[in-house]
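[Q] Does anyone have a clean structure-token version of this?
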Amino acid sequence: MIAVITGDIINSTEKASVNWLKELKSVLSQYGNSPEKWEIYRGDSFQLKLPLEKAIIAAFHIKATIKQIKNKDVRMGIGVGKEDNISEKISESNGAAYRNSGLCFESLKKSNIAIKSNDANWDEPLNIMLELVLLIADKWTKSQAELIKTSIENPDKNQNQLAKLLEKTQSTISISLDRSGYDGLQRVLEYYKKQTQLL
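[A] Here you go.
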């Protein structure tokens, strides 16, 4: 069982002071090499293959990276399932995970992140939780997105250590984590890890 994320950049055609493509490549490269593990295609679309347990944290890692850029966001469909054919290019691999990812992405409407497996009963509570987390995550400010990204990339660091990394006070970090819904995201991640063991 693996996970495949299919996504695209929202407002990709609008000019921005920061090169979102460079930032996207940077975050995707943390999950493996291209083109085996990830590819960018059609200019603003991408696909990422990764271990099942990393799917949701990776999706919010990507979101936090892109949300640091003015007027930019990302839509992602997470597909869960088996991989029937493994190719040197992710675009030439196939299986249930790829099909579910594509179907999930195409069905995105109000929510910018959703997940799909072959078990609708498994998907439903996770998608409800994702919608609730996104009520806050969709409104992350640049500084909040930067903090979430830094927290994800440094899971062993406490608030004081994060404060030093970002050159801010510990109290500022604490308030920002609270306002960005970080505790809620962590609870969803813990629930997700337990659920992956049931598939």
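[Q] Thanks! Anything notable?
[A] Residues 120-137 form the longest helix (18 residues).
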